[in-house]
From TrEMBL:
InterPro entries xrefs: Bact_Chemotaxis_MeTrfase, Chemotaxis_MeTrfase_CheR, CheR_C, CheR_MeTrfase, CheR_N, CheR_N_sf, SAM-dependent_MTases_sf
Keyword annotations: Methyltransferase, S-adenosyl-L-methionine, Transferase
Organism: Fulvimonas yonginensis
Name of this protein: Chemotaxis protein methyltransferase
Catalytic activity as recorded in UniProt: L-glutamyl-[protein] + S-adenosyl-L-methionine = [protein]-L-glutamate 5-O-methyl ester + S-adenosyl-L-homocysteine
Keyword Cell inner membrane attributed: no
Alphabetized Pfam families for the sequence: CheR, CheR_N
Function statement: Methylation of the membrane-bound methyl-accepting chemotaxis proteins (MCP) to form gamma-glutamyl methyl ester residues in MCP.
Enzyme Commission code: 2.1.1.80
C-alpha cells in the first residue's frame, strides 16, 4: 500500500515549506498520484522533502517546485517514494487469504482447462508481502489441483523503493510473524553469515509473481481479465471521484463473478453499482 503517513518520527530541520509551495505540491501530488494532502500533512511533507532537497543540492522548496513545473516526469518517482509510507505485512487481513485458499482458488482451478489461464493482480503491492502471500496460497492450490494451469500474479506499485524491496524478496525474520511455521519452512530460505536474521522468498514464489511499476491514475498496459484484484488500503487516500473512476476501471478488467478485495477500512458503498458485497471487504462483480 502507498499511503501518506500521519506523522514522521524524525522531524528534519531545514527549509520551511511556505503556503504557495505547499499549495502547488498539494495540487501536483493530487494530479499525478491521486492522493489528497490535507493541511495537517504540511509538516510531514516538509520533513520528507527536505531530505530530497539535500540530495538534489537545492536550498529551498521554490527550486524543487520549479523542477516539478519544468519536468514533472523526472522527479515523480522520487516524490512519490518520499511522501509514501508502505504499511504491509504477510497475510494481513487473514480472512481474505482464507477465502482464497478455501473456496475461490479450488473453484477457479476446477473450472480451468488443462493449460488454462488464471490471473490475480496485487494493485499497490508495496514491499511485496501481499503478492508473496497470494503466491504461497496459489502455489499450494496448484499442487493440490494436479493439473497444469497458466497461473500468474501481477504485482504493481507507484513507489520505486517499494518495488525494489519487493523484487529483492528479502525480509527480517520478525516480518514473518504472520506466516505459519509450516509455510516459513516451505516458502522461505533462512540467511546465514552476513544474512543472518534475514529470510528470502522461495524461487517458486518469484516464478509466480511479476513485479512492475504502475501509477493507478495513468494508462494501464494490461488487458486482463483477472480472476481477482487486491487493492487493499489504497483507495482510502483518494477522493470520491477518483475512487469511482478506479472501481469502474477494475470492473472492466474483471469477468462477471470476478472478485475485488479492499482494505479493512474501505468500502464501495455509494461508489459503484457494478459490485456486490459478499464478505468482509470482499466484492464480486455482478453479471452485466
Amino acid at each position: 500500500m502507498n499511503a501518506v503517513a500521519d506523522h514522521d518520527t524524525a522531524m528534519v530541520a531545514g527549509p520551511v515549506l511556505g503556503d504557495g509551495d505547499f499549495q502547488f505540491l498539494r495540487g501536483f501530488v493530487y494530479q499525478y498520484c491521486g492522493i489528497a494532502l490535507s493541511e495537517q500533512k504540511r509538516q510531514l511533507v516538509q520533513g520528507r522533502l527536505a531530505r530530497r532537497l539535500r540530495a538534489l543540492g537545492m536550498r529551498g522548496f521554490g527550486e524543487y517546485c520549479e523542477l516539478l513545473r519544468r519536468d514533472p516526469g523526472s522527479e515523480l518517482d522520487e516524490l512519490s517514494s518520499a511522501i509514501s509510507t508502505n504499511v504491509t505485512a504477510f497475510f494481513r487481513e487473514a480472512h481474505h487469504f482464507d477465502l482464497l485458499a478455501g473456496e475461490l482458488l479450488p473453484r477457479w482451478l476446477e473450472q480451468k482447462r488443462e493449460g488454462g489461464r488464471l490471473r490475480i493482480w496485487s494493485a499497490g503491492c508495496s514491499s511485496g508481502e501481499e503478492p508473496y502471500s497470494i503466491a504461497m496460497v496459489l502455489a499450494e492450490a496448484l499442487e493440490r489441483c494436479g493439473r497444469t494451469v497458466d497461473a500468474k500474479i501481477l504485482a504493481t506499485d507507484l513507489s520505486p523503493a517499494a518495488l525494489a524491496a519487493a523484487r529483492k524478496g528479502v525480509y527480517p525474520l520478525e516480518r514473518l510473524e504472520g506466516v505459519s511455521p509450516e509455510r516459513r519452512r516451505r516458502w522461505f530460505l533462512r540467511g546465514e553469515g552476513e544474512y543472518a536474521g534475514l529470510a528470502c522468498v522461495h524461487p517458486r514464489l518469484r516464478e509466480l509473481t511479476a513485479i512492475l511499476p504502475l501509477n493507478l491514475l495513468h494508462e494501464w498496459p494490461m488487458q486482463g481479465p483477472f480472476d481477482a484484484i487486491f487493492c487493499r488500503n489504497v483507495v482510502i487516500y483518494f477522493d470520491q471521484p477518483t475512487k469511482q473512476k478506479l472501481f469502474r476501471r477494475y470492473a472492466r478488467l474483471l469477468p462477471d463473478g470476478g472478485h475485488l478485495f479492499l482494505g479493512h477500512s474501505e468500502s464501495m458503498h455509494g461508489l459503484s453499482d457494478e459490485f456486490e458485497l459478499i464478505g468482509r471487504t470482499v466484492y464480486r462483480k455482478k453479471p452485466a
